[in-house]
Amino acid sequence: MITTPTPTMLRALPAEHRQRLMRVAREVSFPEGTRLFEEGGRADRFWIIRSGTVELDMRVPGRRAAVVERLRHNELVGWSWLFSPHVWHLGAVATTPVRAYEFDATAVRLMCQNDPALGNTVTPWVGDVLAHRLRSARTCLLDLYAPSGAGRDD
Fold first, then answer.
1. Between the CA of residue 23 and those of 16, 104, 107, 140, 154, what are the distances in Å?
2. Which of 2, 14, 92, 104 could form a Cys-Cys staple with 136, CB 3.0–4.6 A?
């Protein structure tokens, strides 16, 4: 599992764009063990973690779900909301009590569509997170199926 931090909204977006997004956010909390979403489900929202830990996992035939990454404070939970067909490619579960900001995906996509400058900062940020998650998933799969240590870039 990759442990390098994913690009955060704080680092990726200018203050003006962060503030605009935060105007449509709502505070939510999830008890430990809550499934935020399932792989294959409709991606209609996303979260920024305020406190707690969320694990991203993926189904592996004949095995328990494989944990791809652990997300913590200020990290984005969910990227599938931005890209068609808006279906979750991973699953997510709160492994501790979680407090987060929740965003309605449709509202944010419309904001980005109506303000190209906002869209031109949100899309690369989420794209960077996506690339990071794909590397994590690749490493996880190599750890599961390849000869010992083959998934490490060390």
1. 11, 11, 11, 36, 42
2. 2
d(CA 14, CA 33): 34
Give residue 3's pLDDT: 47
How high is the pLDDT of residue 2?
42
Q: What is the CATH number of the domain that holds 105?
A: 2.60.120.10
* Residue-level pLDDT at 31: 98
Q: Which range marks the domain in which residue 132 is found?
A: 9-144
Q: What is the pLDDT of residue 1?
A: 43
In a domain, 113, yes or no: yes
The model's pLDDT over 50-59, given as tens digits with 9 standing for 90+, comes to 999 999 998 8
In the chain, the number of structural domains is 1
| 134 part of a folded domain | yes
Q: DSSP secondary-structure letter at 41?
A: S
CB 69 within 8 A of CB 133: yes
The closest alpha carbon to 69, from 144, 124, 128, 5, belongs to 5
Q: Is residue 81 part of a domain?
A: yes
* Cα 45 to Cα 67: distance, rounded to the nearest angstrom: 21
Stated length of the chain: 154
